[in-house]
Amino acid sequence: MMQPKRSQLKSFFGTQQLAQDNIEETFWNFEDDNIRREFDELVKFSRKNQHRIFELIATRFLSDLRKSDNGNIAKIAFVLHDKDKDDTGTFIKPHVHWLLELKNKRDLDEVAYKFFVHPQQIEKGSKGKNGLLGRIGYLTHQAEPDKFKYDGHDVETFGTFDYADYISKNSAYFKKRLTFNRKQQAKIS
User: Fold this and answer.
1) What is the mean pLDDT of residues 139-165?
2) How does DSSP assign the chain, residue by residue?
3) What average pLDDT does this structure show over 10-24?
4) Residue 122 burial (CB count, 10 A)
5) What's the half-sphere exposure (Cβ side, CA atoms, 13 Å) at 134?
6) Which of 3, 20, 62, 151 could cysteine-pair with 25, CB 3.0–4.6 Å?
7) Partners of 9 in the beta sheet?
8) What tens digit of pLDDT does each residue of 79-94 get?
9) β-bridge mates for residue 14, sequence order
10) How much is the CA Rg of the chain, to the nearest whole Å?
11) Residue of higher predicted confidence among 39 and 3
């Protein structure tokens, strides 16, 4: 019997709530109970503890990140969104957005395991430079007219790239996308 073709990709994106609503939900698959307990305590004050939260989520990537060339990791980035609102103006629960760009393709299940999430919680990367560029900009809502603009200094990249510099070098693209998105919203309104 033939095995189904596995997703082998270079870029992955995810959004994950920090805290679960009830015990039956599993947002984070921490196998180590000590890490789970530490994480649960940290998310109570997520803004204050965001760097340590990102470190815990990136634990399985640390061996790559410690190498002088970051191993297979081209870019990794995390940001905490705790000021987003829904259409009614109510704050959305704090959540983490992350992205991973690899030098060589990897299996979706392997990347999900490394991020402590289920494969269905990962979005596959968009093709082309602008797909990745848009995803990187989304971390701080660069081209989102009605969303809170997060500070680029809140994006943790573990030294794989300079987020603020990347945004600055691509500012023309983000301004163009922001203008386009505003026009699209005006049409819908």
Assistant:
1) 95
2) -PPPPP-EEEEEEEEEESS-SSTT--S----SHHHHHHHHHHGGGTTTTHHHHHHHHTGGGHHHHHSTT-TTEEEEEEEEE-S-B-TTSPBPPPEEEEEEEEEEEEEHHHHHHHTTS-GGGEEEPPSHHHHHHHHHHHTTTTT-TTS----GGG-B-TTSS-HHHHHHHTHHHHHHHHHHHHHHHHHH-
3) 83
4) 22
5) 13
6) 20
7) 106
8) 999 999 998 999 999 9
9) 98, 122
10) 17
11) 39
**CA dist., res. 60 & res. 25, Å (int):** 22
d(CA 158, CA 176): 29
Mean pLDDT of the chain: 90
**What tokens were used for 16?**
């994950």
Q: How confident is the model at residue 184 (pLDDT cuts 50, 70, 90)?
A: confident
How many angstroms separate the CA atoms of 14 and 117, rounded? 9
Q: Which two tokens stand for residue 76?
A: 């990794």
Torsion angles phi and psi, residue 107, rounded to 5: -75, 140
Rounded Cα distance, 37 and 189, in Å: 45
Res 124 pLDDT > 90: no
Task: Retrieve residue 87's tokens.
Answer: 């259409």
